[in-house]
Each structure stands twice: as structure tokens, then as C-alpha cells.
Amino acid sequence: MLRRVIAVAVSAALAWGDEIVVERGGTIQAALDRAASGDTVSVPAGTYVESLTISKHVELIAPDGPLVTILMPGAPKQRVVHIMPATFPTVTGFTITQGAAERGGGVLVEGQLQLFGCVVSANVAADRGGGVYVDGPAGGGLLASGSRFTNNRAVHGGGLGAEMAEGAVVEVVDCTFDGNAVTGNGGAIELVQGDKNAFNVLTLRDTRLIGNTAGGDGGGLHAAVGAGAPFTFADVSLVNSTVMRNVAGGTGGGVRVTTSSFPASSLTVTHSVLVGNTAASGGGVSADVQFGIVNNSIVRDNVPDPGVGVQFRESNVDGGATGVGVIDADPLFVDLHGGDLHLLATSPCRDGGVGLVFPLDIDGDERPFGAEVDMGLDEFAPRLYVTADLAGIPTSVGLVAVPGAGEMVLATSAAFLEQPIQLGPGLLFLAPPLTLFAFGSVPSEGILTFAIPRGVSPGFTVALQGLAGDTLTNGLVLTLP
After folding, report:
1. How far apart (Å, rounded) are the C-alpha atoms in residues 476 and 474?
2. Which of 215, 118, 104, 111 is closest to 152 using CA atoms?
3. pTM of this prediction?
4. What pairs with residue 275 in β-bridges?
5. 54, 75, 92, 278: which has the fewest Cβ within 10 Å?
6. Which of 456, 240, 218, 185 is nearest to 361 (CA)?
7. 194 falls in which pLDDT band (50, 70, 90)?
8. Which of 133, 185, 137 has its CA nearest to residue 161?
9. 10-290 sits in which CATH class?
């Protein structure tokens, strides 16, 4: 599964005020009750069986991360975390699991929540938002980053559900939604517009919706705009995102956006990949809005069709789709079956896009590298990157270069330099001593991948940088959790 490996450096988080550490045998709720707005509550590794209520502007962090810091409800059929109205907390580094409620089995958000580096798994809602529910009319909003929503269940919105009110914003950055399921709409995510005049925003960036299921519409994402309101407007956008192998019993296997009243709402899919989704209609995307556009993207192998109700532009689309700059050709991913959606050097998607819609690709590379931007979420460029599974566990390293550029070399080190050194081939990031591994000349497809050996000790960390011919790549730190 393609994703950037992100280390949540919660230990380096900036404290707002005082730090309160949960002592051995103590409870998180007791620490939250003692905290004042602006304080940080630090939670050591462990499994905590308690239902939390957060009613202050606090930072709740688990420095050891979600693999070893687990929150479970205090009693059966209770949610795990409740964010009260008019609060602005941050929650970082937890697994939130096995909660159950009418709405928001894992987390109910009535304030403004920042959720960083968490795993929200195996929660259940009898109505909406199995993992997380954002109650917009109560003042709810959400920024989720670097988190995973997996195996949650609900009637609507398996991983994330939101009822939006005037001015509400839900932003999802570098998150994974996988294995979530609903009997209704929105296998991974569902947004419903409230009954008051409103302008709302739902943004997915660098995010993956993979293998989610809806009995109704929107196997990956469902947004219903203007339910009962005469003048509502929602801007739904996906950028640098993957929508893959989702299933809907109705329409919109990957994405479904619809409006029931004033139609001036928009769906924009940019520099994204929609592949292998299935529905009764609109396999990739289905929209009933005034402005629906898919541009600079790759939409293929969706059943029974790539999409309905949208305009395709400068995209690689199969199934007989037409539009300005639309092509129909094998995109030549590095490994579609394995989920590596980087482009090979020979991909017809290179330089096939138009315009600088979003300046950075999924890896943080600048667009464009060639004459024009590439279609899809990857801008082909000399680069070292890591492929990981859905849980974020690194599985392989890829070294990308232009064919004919020369020799490919991988360098390893124990650390980065405090300041990079400018050399002829570019910036050197690694501190000596270096260990070099030569792989010969750049192959015709422009990429080498090598698997990370199994059995490497947890916590193993190494700094990497590539040399592709006469060009040094980026540097990255590979850490095995």
C-alpha cells in the first residue's frame, strides 16, 4: 500500500502549558479533570479501559504511539471519547477501539478536534460514524492527520460520519480508511448537510480509501448536500488520494456526491487514482452536482463504468470515457496489485496533465518534473521512497530515476548531517560513514525496488539516500515499528 511512512514525534510536541503525566495505576480522566486549558496530558504505554470526556482545550498525547497505547470504553456499549462543545483539544498517538454508541462509537466530536497519528478500529455505531462522528450543529469540526480508520461498522459512515452545519470543515490529511462497512451509505466516510443554509468543506488530501463496503451508495465516500435546506453549498475535494477496491450496492463504488436542493455544490477530484471500485452504476465516481470534475487523475478498472455525472479532463480513463485531454492506456504503475501506484518511466501518464493544481505530489515532490504535470498522485522524478502496508509497516524501498541516467546506488548511514552539503550531483543529507550498495545502470522502467527483510528488529532505524546517475535523491529515515 502506497503511503508515506510518518513518525509521530509526539515526544517533541510543543506543550501549551503544564504537563500532567498519568501515573501508574491512575486514570486518564482524572488527569484530564486536573488539567487546565492549555495543559498537556501525557499517557504512558498501556491499555486504558475508561470512557473519556474532554471539555477543555488540552493536548492528550501518547508518546509511545498507538501500537502500545490503547483506549477502550469503560463499559459495554459505551463510546471511547466524547469531545464536548466549544472545546478545541488535540488527541495524538492512541488506538481507539471497541466503542459503541448511537453515533460516534469511537469518538463523538461536538467541539473542534485535531486527531493526529491515531488508529481508530473496531468501533460500532447504531446510526452514523462507527469510528468518529462530527456533530456539526453542535459546533463540531475535525482535522485528522496521519491516522488509520479500520474495521469500523455503522449504518452510515463506517470510519467517519459528519453532519455539517454552517461553516463546518472536515479535513482529512494522509489518513487510511480500510475495511470499514455500512449497511447504508458511505463505507469509509459520509457527510450529510444539515437543515440550515450553509457553506461547508470536506477535503481529503494524500488519503487512501481502500476496501470499504456500503450496502447503499458511496463505497468509499458519500456526501449528501442540502438535505431539506433551500440554499446550501458544499465543496467536496480529493487531492493526491487513492480510492481503490471499494464496493457499493447502489451507485458510486468509489465516490458518490449528491444534492437534493440548491445544486450549486462541487466535487473536484485532482491528481488522484480511482481503481478497481464496484457498484451498480458509477463504479468509480457518481455525482449529481452542478460542478463535478475529475482532472489530472487515473480512473480505471471500475465496474460497471468509470463514472457518471462528472467531466473528465486530462485524465487516463477507460470504459469509453471522453473529455479534453483524456487518454485510455495502461498507466504502468510500479505494482498495482501490491498497491504501489508510482509511475514507471514509460508510463503514458507522464506529462499528461495540465496546470499546477496542487504543487506537491504524494511523496512531497514538486510538480512538474517534466514539461507538464503527470496524471495521478505521483510525479515521476528521481526519488527514494518507502512502500508500506495498510498498517503503515514498511515493506520495500523504491529508487526511481530516468532510464539512461547512469548507475543507481543506495547509501545508508546512521544519521543525517546537521546541515546538508552541496555537491555536484546535489545535496548530500547523510552523515559519514556511509555504506554503499551498487545496483547497476538504471533499468528501462526507471525504478528498482527491494524488499525489507523480515525479522528485522523492531525499532531498527537507518538513514537512506540514492544516487541515480549524476543526481542525488532525497534523503529519508526508515524506521521499523
Report:
1. 7
2. 104
3. 0.92
4. 244, 300
5. 75
6. 240
7. low
8. 133
9. mainly beta
Cell of 192: 450529510
How far is residue 372's CA from residue 314's CA, in Å, rounded to a whole number? 11
Question: Looking at 126-135, 213-222, 331-340, which range is the least confident one?
Answer: 331-340
Indicate the Cα dihedral angle 387, 47, 160, 218, nearest 10°: 60
- Residue 293: HSE in the Cβ half-sphere, 13 Å Cα cutoff: 15
| 72 exposure class (CB count in 10 Å sphere: 0-12, 13-18, 19+) | middle
Say which residue the cell 467541539 belongs to.
Answer: 111
Q: Are 252 and 285 in contact (CB under 8 A)?
A: yes
**Which residues have a Cβ under 8 Å from the Cβ of 75 and sit 6 or more positions away?**
51
- Is-contact 99 74, C-beta < 8 A? no
Q: Which fold has domain 383-479?
A: Immunoglobulin-like (2.60.40)
Contact 130, 156 (CB under 8 A): no
Give tens-digit pLDDT for 22-79.
998 899 999 999 999 999 999 999 999 999 999 999 999 999 999 999 999 999 999 9
Domain locations along the chain: 10-290, 383-479
CA atoms within 13 A on the CB side of 51: 18
- Specify the length of the chain in residues: 481
| 301's grid cell | 478498472
Burial class (CB in 10 A: 0-12, 13-18, 19+), 114: middle
φ, ψ dihedrals at 351, nearest 5°: 60, 20
- Tell me the C-alpha distance between 117 and 158, whole Å: 19
